[in-house]
Amino acid sequence: MRYEDKVVIVTGGTKGIGEGCVEVFAEAGARVAFCGLEQPLGDAVAARVSGAGSGRAAFTRVDVTDHDRLCAFIDDTAAEHGRLDCLINNAGWHPPHRRIDEFTVEDLRTIFELNVVSLFVACQRAVPHLRRSRGSIVNIASLVGRIGQRHATTYVATKGAVAAFSKALAIDEAPAVRVNSVSPGNVFTPLWQEAIDASPDPAATRHAGERAQPFGRMGTPREVGRLCLYLAAEATFTTGVDHIISGGAELGYGDKVAPGETA
User: How many angstroms separate the CA atoms of 33 and 30, rounded?
Assistant: First the structure.
């Protein structure tokens, strides 16, 4: 798949799924503008990616909950390159697992501000540019927005909102702008590594994450990035669809046993 000389914005692009998207789109020939909070990480990703393929990447430090700053980043990117072809809304966070009575209303507001409101603002600002290029939006939701997750009511609510919002926006903007969402299952990211490191039994925690899929492993950020590239570059008759990329985690009942393993 090629995306030669197209202009792409990726939010939350310094690590994990966002970094995978930056890598894959740049390798496909795109000009990628990505943002995040960690300047050293962003600079390192931009330098590595820009030297590896036909595309290039540039990092800007942006807190997506600062709406003025986020809008300026989008407008500046479109002005610099004369166009915008794709917006990938990836910035977000998964709070620590807690029962509902251990969350506060402010916790809920805070996670919605990051995972949903900033995404709305980015789409709102990018849509006029994307109408001109007949571009697309890919919003990163989550498998748990469909199937639920233990002790994660606030996060699950945000990701369900992302998928529903994407469908509604797809109706409004067709046929000029295609809008899809991607719902990853267990993808091995730095956030997953943090959970493993914080566990009293790190090996058991990683094994549990791996055995949740019939594949017997977690996904990779690049695999999600390739799906996003397909939606932007090839899926020209696809809009309003939530695309699960989970290794089959939602299939069957309970834990999955990988081939060659015993229950």
Answer: 10
